[in-house]
Amino acid sequence: xxxxxxxxxxxxxxxxxxxxxxxxxxxxxxxxxxxxxxxxxxxxxxxxxxxxxxxxxxxxxxxxxxxxxxxxxxxxxxxxxxxxxxxxxxxxxxxxxxxxxxxxxxxxxxxxxxxxxxxxxxxxxxxxxxxxxxxxxxxxxxxxxxxxxxxxxxxxxxxxxxxxxxxxxxxxxxxxxxxxxxxxxxxxxxxxxxxxxxxxxxxxxxxxxxxxxxxxxxxxxxxxxxxxxxxxxxxxxxxxxxxxxxxxxxxxxxxxxxxxxxxxxxxxxxxxxxxxxxxxxxxxxxxxxxxxxxxxxxxxxx
Length: 302
Known about the structure:
This protein has 302 residues and is an alpha/beta fold. The chain is built from eleven helices and seven strands. Strand 1, helix 4 and strand 2 form a beta-alpha-beta unit. Helix 3 crosses helix 9 and helix 7 packs across helix 11. The longest helix is centred in the first third of the chain and has 34 residues. The radius of gyration is 19 Å and the shape is globular. The termini are far apart.
């Protein structure tokens, strides 16, 4: 339980979900509260969709192409979250079989309710101890999650173990330093107002710089390792479309926003509004994001 709670506290866009397991415990002891607990979990997952899930869905097609997933492959989606990658695979490859795994019960509940076919199933589980036999999958994938796994080395070893010889293991992590504008603009303004917050800036995320994933894949023993940046764009209809998830506590940034006094929150909002809109009162805008993606093959057995 503590392992899952830690994982959820680390996840971007769902810091508010730290209470999910608390809700589950209440539901277990008081069945009358179960519908309310489920509703809260589903609502938190929907909030993640608006904050970060929309970006994951944009990234998924490019990532699938880079990983080289083929018709007929059996695919494991590690850290599936609300199922962005699994949904894209399900929609684009008609004969792929999918398993999505995540430590968050709320995310898995959300993903199950949105599955479109019997070819995909979702399970609560831990990337550091995958509940699958050796060589179970043709492809093992991890979209925007490796930097949040406490022992990422153990997770990568597990991903290799459950992937067949000559199968592919891949992952993508946001370029938090400069390539993820939605978060970069936010943290730039936070640190400008409160320099003491610099250590909390997400540019400090592990595995988010060029070459770090490729080095890790090579150390793990994968062959034919490739690393490549993938770039996408996200359209926002208004400033509130961007800002409201922060006000609801989504992610490390949202946790910071809800901790502020009203006056400090207004100051931050003013700066970010100016950064995104310039002199316009409101309107649509487009932000870019870059992720570093890596793939490697499990070597043939000697």
